[in-house]
Input
Amino acid sequence: MTRSASILLVEDNPMDVELIIDAFKEARLGNKIQVAGNGKQALEFLFGQGSYGDRKQYPLPDIVLLDLKMPGIDGHEVLKRIKSTDMLKRIPVIILTSSRDEGDRAMSYDNGANSYLVKPVSFEDFLNVVKQVSDYWLILNVEPPLDETL
Amino acid sequence: METSEKENISHRLILSFVFLILIFFVFGLYSLYGIRTISDLTRLIYNSPFAVSNAALQSNVSITKMHRNMKDVVLFNASDRIQQSIFAVDQQEKLVYQYLDIVRDRILGDQGRDLENESRTLFENWRPIREQVIALVRMGQRDKAAEITIGKGADHVAKLEEKMIALADYARMKASSFMNETEKTQSHLNITTIIFLILCITMSCTIAFFTLKRAASAEKKLRESGQLLMNAIDYAPIGMVLVELGGKFNKVNEMFCEMTGYSKAEFSDMKYQEITHPDDDGIESNSVKQLIEGEIDRAHLEKRYIEKNGNIIDVSLSISLLRDSKGSPLYFFTQVQNITERKRMDKALKESEKKYQNFFNNAQVALFRTSIEGGILEINKRYAEISGYPTIEACMAEFNPGKAWADPNQRNALLNILQEKKFVSDYETKIFRRDGAHIWILFSATLYPEKGFIEGSLVEITDRKKAEKEIRELNRNLELRVYQRTARLEEVNKELEDFVYSVSHDLRAPLRSISGFSEIINRRHKASLNEEGQHYFNNIVKASSQMGELIDDLLKFSRLGRLSIKSEKILLKDVFKTAIKTLSGEIEKTGARINVAEQMPAVQGDLTLTTHVFINLLGNALKYQKPDIPPVVDVGFEIKPPHVIISVADNGIGIDPVYHEKIFNIFQRLHSQTEYSGTGIGLAAVKKALQIMKGQVKVESEPDKGSVFKVTILMAATESTKGTQQ
Output
């Protein structure tokens, strides 16, 4: 892998954000992680709107880690928008949530989520999850072609 | 019986004697015939052979006399003497002819007749010789005459004598042959007589013997049957009594004594009138008169007797009159039956009939008897009321139950049921009253096809029907309300579950932060904490880990109700395999042995829930072990269609029976975290999972004696019955 893949983390809980970033650090993964604190921010980032207008500074991520339960525009809405937008639909979206709810899972996959992970409680497990996600999605998985013209 | 026997014997006797008389008659005829034969033969002997023989000998004598006279004719000189001698010759000649005639008449047989002819011819031929002699004498040629007489004449006489003797011999021969015949006949007669007499004596003896024997046996029988009859009368189950015409008792039997209380000895001095109730005295006088006059053969009547002890009994009498051989009345023969009980029963029956009638008429249920076609035969007051009539009579005159049915088809259907089952009970139907209003009734009836009627009852249930309708409406409302409440309750339940779920979910986020950052501190900054700080920090880590477990269990528990449940065939063998695999860490750590029975059956349920149940139970069995004793868990089963009972038995610390119910409640814990860790949710989840699958769980346990958890769960739909294994 020639360039370090970038990650968009959509998570409203700042502690979880910190933990995830820490976990990436702990796993010694030097990926660039952009954080969106809510659904609205995430969409602005992905569509290059508002303060994220500069694509050079805020390029499209290689994967999106998406929480479901968020105030305002929730994870489902964000997922739906990503998967219904040609420019974004090929970006793998990994749901990272504390919900095991059947409805959440079903809706996520229906809307095109590429993976669904439940946040573990212990930090140890969290580390494992982050490591495995990175290994799989950022190393093993062959990314879809990105149409730069779009 | 005895009469016919007597008749039989006398018939036989008469027959036998007729037979004997016949034989004697035949024998008499035969004897007569024999005697006649003998007398005929005797007469014949007398008539012919003796007469012939005598005549032959007499004629021989006469011929000899003639010859001597002829000699005199020749010898005498005197003419008168000659004349005398010639006369004598003629006399004798006549005699000879007479004798020959006798011979001719009497002689028998051709040979005899030939002999007589020859004799007669020879005698006739002598005459010319004699006439020649006489002529010569008359001519005086005496010598010549003498010569002829002595010569030719004498020869002829000799021949004649010879013939006569032959005749006599022939006759004698005949006589002796008759004699033989007579003797033969007599000897036959003798033999026949002897045989016949022997025969007759034998037969008479035989007849006499058998007749006597028969008579003796008949007499014996007669005696026996007489005795039997006396016994029969004496021990007959009804009273029997022989009463003289004047009323004196002649004979009474045991039953009569028993009936009246008097002994036989007492009766011998009593009169019939003495035991008759004074009011009934003379009750039978008319019948007695008719009996005596022969107008009737027997009389029947009922009267009252007074027992010896003064009690009055009712009796039924059957009287007949016994007459002697001339037909004069001898005794009254009376058969007596005690009918006191029957009379009492009759009275009771009448009373009960009256009671029944009262009961029937005044019953508060409508009662009826109708013909099969529906016409009223009998009804009670209530029936008339229900049908809308003021009286039974009015109702019976006008009302036709067969046509009162609101739905005639229903009546036909009911009749069909009645024909088939003979009864029907509580059949609900509508009928029209007199005023045309319809009422609801409960119809119950029994069909008596052989009597051609239907009996039954009607209960008016119009009010009840109204009430039922109201109740039904109320019920419907109630059901609706229950349904609404249930729905609301389910909603609330769901909300509660959602609440629990989201609470546990939301609790996880801060918990995750606590445990996450704790871990980071633990990894990177622990060294910078002093001892006290490290202790508190450890407490935080422990508490957050407990809370994590608690939240996980709570989430699992609340998730049970949110799962979509399947009902499928589950192989318990596989479930335990999964459970043991899941628990392999604990098994290794505790050194436990889990023995699962072979051929675990299949059950019907949800795989996830079932697995959850047994992971929990096995987990508990491993967890609540006695200190330092490795857990031994036995899993067995018992099939009680339609359920399977699976037992999980451990050798752990056991549970006080006080807690056997409580342990299945959520958050119920019996031990502190330091003794045995846990959240108090596991068994509640087991119970809930089994409730969802229509199963149940129970525990049998005592402290220190291990626990047996028994899970009842539906058998797999296709599981055939197998044995029981522990």
The two ends of chain B are 88 Å apart (CA to CA).
